[in-house]
Amino acid sequence: LFSSYMSRILFLSDIHGSLPALDAVLSYYDAHHYDLLVLLGDILNYGPRNGLCPGLNPQAIAEKLNERAANIVAVRGNCDSEVDQMLLNFPIQSTYSLLIDEGIRFFITHGHVYNEKNMPQAPGCNVFVYGHTHLQKLEAATAVSPVILNTGSPTFPKGGNPPTFATFCDGTLAIRTLDGEAIKSLKI
Predict the structure, then answer these.
(1) Measuring CA to CA, which of 39, 79, 121, 146 is 20 to 30 A from 67?
(2) How far apart, in Å, are the Cα atoms of 94 and each of 25, 45, 81, 108?
């Protein structure tokens, strides 16, 4: 996906069927006029390792996201299935996607195939974006690694972290709590 101006991108992973979590993130997305919603997998299914989340409602999530299908890029998580795809009006079956915005290359994936221990050799990227672990992370690039961004989870955060998502706006990546507070940020 190419853009001719710097986009406002919201990254979200591991919703796991929680309608209240999605509603909180979409409220922020709308209030701050984001251009693109990037879903990093585990959208509808709560997953066999998790308990039932508050507000479990995959059908309502599918309806809300389908209304925004034209502005969504998504990849498949380990809990996403062909049945989930049947409910959604945008593709979710790819293991990864590459977004390019004003020359910044974002490699987006869920994290169960490609992750920090199994980085893809190609295509090259400036920012490696993933979820899966439910542990938010934002680290600057090094000589051997791109910027690392893990959005955490708005539904089942781990490691004592709050529920989170991430944003890219005006050249800055940020990890945000559900009320929109930036708890980590990095200019790239």
Answers:
(1) 79
(2) 23, 17, 11, 10
